[in-house]
Amino acid sequence: MSYLDELFSVAGKTALITGAATGIGRMAATALVQAGASVMIASRKGEDCIRVAGELNDFAASGRAEGFAGDVSSEAGIAALVAEVRARTDRLHILVNNAGVSWGAPLEDFPYHAWAKVFGVNVTAVFHLTRELLPLLDAAASDADPARVINLGSVMGTQPLADDAYSYTASKAAVHHLTRTLAIEFATRRITVNAFAPGPFQSRMTAFATATEEQAKHVGGHVPLRRIGTPDDIAGATIYLCSRAGSYVTGAILPIDGGQSVQHGLTLFKE
């Protein structure tokens, strides 16, 4: 094995990715399977997870995937998911808290219950599922190779931008802060905690704006690098943070947004 292959290896690691039947979760799962990891894919739609796992296994890659139902929207659902994971492994090297929901409505009509629903999945579940899986993460962790937690934030949690998704943008800012909080608390346990802060990617959540190539090109025109994200952008970040290359990184909010996190319309002296 070459130096680079060893540095970025995740071969033999076991991972759980929530909400991985579509979008960014599926992109991360694909990367880990292709790189030799065993990946559990869980979401509310278990049949979709089983299908996606089969598609990933058809790649004949060195890793493998297994799909099953897992609902993180309630305490009972999280307990059931933890039981499913425990039935399959006694150690967890990688946890990707990717499951998320959004809600869009004008300010005047934004419903009260949209806050509890969005925060329940996007924030509460991240904390509760991670805590419940700590024994498995502890079992996989070592000084040389910490266990890894990756939370899904968003550029909308970095920039003061709502686009009618008030509870979503606030929830992603909370994910970023929770990530930093858990990073310092888990450091002595040899568990790193980082977050992705993606910009626009094609996913079920963004299908209303990115489903067609024409739409994707239009949205990409608002990004400094003039495109939306691709699966390789998620794959590279995932492999980096989950391999030895990223073992000294914790508490980071990694922007994968083509420059949107530093985008602004300000100018001081130039016309």
Give a description of the structure.
The structure is a single chain. The chain is α/β, with parallel strands linked by helices and 271 residues long. It has a single domain, classed as Rossmann fold (3-Layer(aba) Sandwich). It is built from ten helices and seven strands. It has helices at residues 3-7, 23-34, 46-57, 75-88, 113-132, 134-140, 166-186, 207-210, 213-220, 231-242, and strands at residues 14-18, 38-43, 64-69, 94-97, 147-152, 191-198, 253-256. A seven-stranded parallel β-sheet has the order 3-2-1-4-5-6-7, with helices on both faces. The model has no long low-confidence stretch (mean pLDDT 94).
**CATH overall fold name:** Rossmann fold
Number of helices: 10
Strand content: 5-15%
Radius of gyration: 18 Å
Strand and helix order: HEHEHEHEHHEHEHHHE
| Uncertain stretches | none
